[in-house]
Design brief:
Layout (H helix, E strand, L loop, with lengths): L10 H9 L1 H7 L4 H9 L18 H14 L1 H17 L4 H8 L7 E4 L6 E5 L2 E11 L7 E7 L6 E7 L4 E3 L13 E11 L3 E3 H6 L8 H4 L3 H28 L12 H30 L4 H28 L10 H13 L6 H28 L1
Parallel strand pairs: 1-4
Antiparallel strand pairs: 2-3, 3-7, 4-5, 5-8, 6-7
Helix pairs in contact: 1-4, 4-5, 4-9, 5-9, 9-10, 9-11, 9-12, 10-11, 11-12, 11-13
């Protein structure tokens, strides 16, 4: 399905996810079988430090794996992407906190609710007492740990706290249009003590670890790979949408002629498939930069731009397919309809909203150009 998924992400795993995709959409959560095979395939350990048995993997590898799962089930890809990303976040915990999370296995599933912060973290002897309610916590019912971000009482910081899943109450609130199978319910924590070893400042996540021995995937700022990872499930879903639509286009219509006899159908195939391919190239380039390029403000802004533009291209592509397909392919319970809903839900995520991303990109690029122009002018005046 994907060009180069990891060896553990076998066809059997992807076929099972595809077979359960419709049920996940109906039940508003992944099936236990899908959770088990995705965990065994190593998605949760992708960014876990090697000293705990993790992979410390690349962003390109994560993009390819998540997109491959997205071709089978967008909701499964979304949750798997977050398991991987949250392992990267938890790697910022102090050493003893990491040991508590991963000492037994690197394959622990971690849910998280970090933005916007909510609740309250009260200082306590040896740690913090955390209380609050966090909405849209994807995969929380299948998580073994939950990261929550809570403002620190009596201060202006925000503390990320790792809470065992058995100390978290789940309110069944998720009933969205798309990504319905992600089980993104509300997590409630009621006066739970969290020791210092299981906390770190949210600001550290935003800037990346400054530990010289940390792996590249733990040192980069959150925004550098964030958008491309969030967009990866939509890339897989859009690829699958092209395949589903193409099966319809190749079939014969009521008059006995194939649907692709229509110029509009042929144009739709050309444009939509090119949009999906172009979005994939943008995301691949962003992933390679996140893996290797020197980190600058312009690089971060460029990656955010590429992810947001890719998300818009993918949404435009599935829109084009949806409009051109016949009434049968647009059936409310059909696969193309589900993919259309999923891609639009991914594209609407705050990380992929184009307006704030465009502001950040313009500030980084035009600001740098202006500074360079002032330097050249000063040199000429001397």
């Amino acid at each position: 399905m994907s060009s180069n998924p990891s060896p553990d992400l076998t066809d059997d795993v992807l076929v099972l996810a595809a077979e359960h995709a419709r049920l996940a959409d109906q039940e508003r959560q992944l099936t236990g079988e899908v959770v088990t095979v995705l965990t065994s395939a190593g998605l949760a350990r992708h960014f876990v430090p090697r000293r705990w048995g993790g992979t410390e993997g690349s962003f390109l590898g994560a993009l390819e794996d998540v997109a491959a799962v997205g071709e089978a089930c967008t909701s499964a890809a979304w949750v798997a992407m977050l398991w991987a990303a949250h392992g990267r976040f938890a790697a910022l915990l102090p050493e003893e906190g990491q040991r508590e999370v991963w000492g037994g296995s690197p394959d622990l599933r971690i849910a998280a609710a970090l933005v916007p912060p909510a609740g309250r973290a009260e200082p306590a002897d040896g740690g913090w007492r955390v209380t609050g309610s966090w909405a849209c916590v994807s995969g929380v019912e299948h998580a073994e740990w939950v990261l929550v971000a809570a403002p620190e009482a009596y201060g202006d910081g925000v503390r990320v706290c790792a809470v065992p899943a058995d100390a978290v109450d789940v309110e069944n609130t998720w009933d969205a249009t798309g990504l319905r199978g992600t089980g993104s319910h509300t997590a409630v924590v009621r006066d739970v003590f969290v020791p210092h070893r299981r906390t770190f400042p949210l600001a550290e996540l935003m800037r990346g670890s400054d530990a010289p021995e940390a792996a590249r995937c733990h040192r980069v700022p959150a925004h550098l790979p964030g958008g491309l990872l969030f967009c990866a499930p939509a890339l897989g879903a859009a690829r699958r949408a092209v395949a589903v639509w193409s099966e319809w286009a190749a079939a014969k219509g009521p008059g006995g002629r194939p649907h692709h006899d229509s110029p509009a159908v042929r144009e739709t195939l050309a444009v939509a498939s090119a949009q999906v391919d172009a979005a994939g190239l943008l995301l691949e380039r962003a992933a390679r930069r996140a893996d290797t390029a020197p980190v600058t403000e312009a690089l971060v802004a460029g990656n955010r731009r590429d992810a947001a533009v890719a998300a818009r291209m993918l949404a435009d592509a599935v829109d084009r397919l949806f409009r051109t397909g016949g009434a049968h392919i647009r059936d409310g319970s059909g696969e193309l309809t589900r993919l259309w809903r999923d891609v639009h839900t991914v594209a609407s995520h705050g990380v992929l909203r184009l307006e704030p991303v465009a502001d950040a990109y313009a500030s980084a690029v035009l600001g740098a150009d202006a500074a360079e122009a002032r330097t050249r002018a000063a040199s000429r005046s001397r």
